Amino acid sequence: MQQRFLSLALPLALLLAAAGCSRAADLAEIRLPAGFRISLYADKLDDARSLALSPAGTLFVSTRRAGKVYAVLDRDGDGRGDRTLVIAAGLDMPNGIAFKDGALYVAEPGRLLRFDDIEGRLDNPGTPAVVYDDFPKDRAHGWKFIAFGPDGLLYVPVGAPCNICDPGDPYAALHRMRADGGGREVFARGIRNTVGFDWHPETGELWFTDNGRDWLGDDLPPDELNRAPEPGLHFGFPYRHGKDLADPEFGGGGKDLIFTPPAHAFQAHVAALGAEFYTGTMFPEKYRHSLFVAQHGSWNRTSKVGYRLVCLFIDKDRVTGSEVFAEGWLRDGRVSGRPVDLETMADGSLLLSDDHAGAVYRISHDPARPAPAEPPEK
Description:
By secondary structure, the protein is mainly beta. The chain contains 1 helix and 29 strands. It has one helix at residues 2-24; strands at residues 36-42, 48-53, 59-63, 69-73, 83-88, 96-100, 103-107, 112-115, 129-132, 147-148, 154-158, 173-177, 185-189, 197-199, 206-210, 223-228, 233-234, 240-241, 245-246, 264-266, 272-277, 291-295, 308-315, 318-326, 330-331, 334-335, 339-344, 350-354, 359-365. The longest helix has 23 residues, at 2-24. Residues 1-22 have low confidence and may be disordered.
């Protein structure tokens, strides 16, 4: 009986791998500004989600559904991963990962794990240490994005366990703690679900995306980009959305609170996830210290929106402009990719994960490269 199951599983695995390759091969359809190129960095990564890059150049890739964490190595330095290892499996929605002092931190809904000396033990990471295990275990918005701030603290969100509700602490909030799991405190409240944040390289201020609630129609409320220059701010959920939209169910609450409006409003339902300030020097000067945001794409809108990478231009504390930087994963209602998270490499290229294709892409710039031709109509 076991042999029969294996014989059935092998063709299925080959079909799934082939499907992943064909999805990641649609890069000829991706439109970028003149001089830019997108290429495949790694594939066959199940639902590739969050990225964490070590100073030595090891790329760690998390998953949400597959329960795995990968390490991708580019040993010959040609701008494409040439060895992929599964360093953890059987985890519970390990969406959030962060690297600090030689250790890889992995977030499940209810706990934080730490793999010490991970780059020296890629072939046998061993059993991780449990850093913290007192977060709620809700499935709804229970997966996490995590990152270390310039203060050395680990920032961990706890999303609202609902579409719209008033759950109170520790939900709908961004927490922070020491690397050893101690000293946890609430940094900000009124956040429905952030799956991406970064700190401005000059001001050190935190900027984060937040996904708006569902079922208020195709065009409300907006997804948000928020700025948190200090702890203790409240960003409106569940009482207010966007700049001044009162929630039809909870708009009468929170009267004693002072709400901080978003720094920028995205179109409703684009699912703004990963956010990365560009700190490299490969891209033209206009992109230095701009914020790249991955729009994962809508799931319940009448016509699909998102599925692209946008760039926001920021002058200290305000957004001064924006542009669609990479698009083409959505064409005539057909989805070939869903951007999730970003990392800037040491050479200044930008990595982008795609959980639909199970891939990571590399975006590079060469001023001599002509603008890409418009893909033929399908």
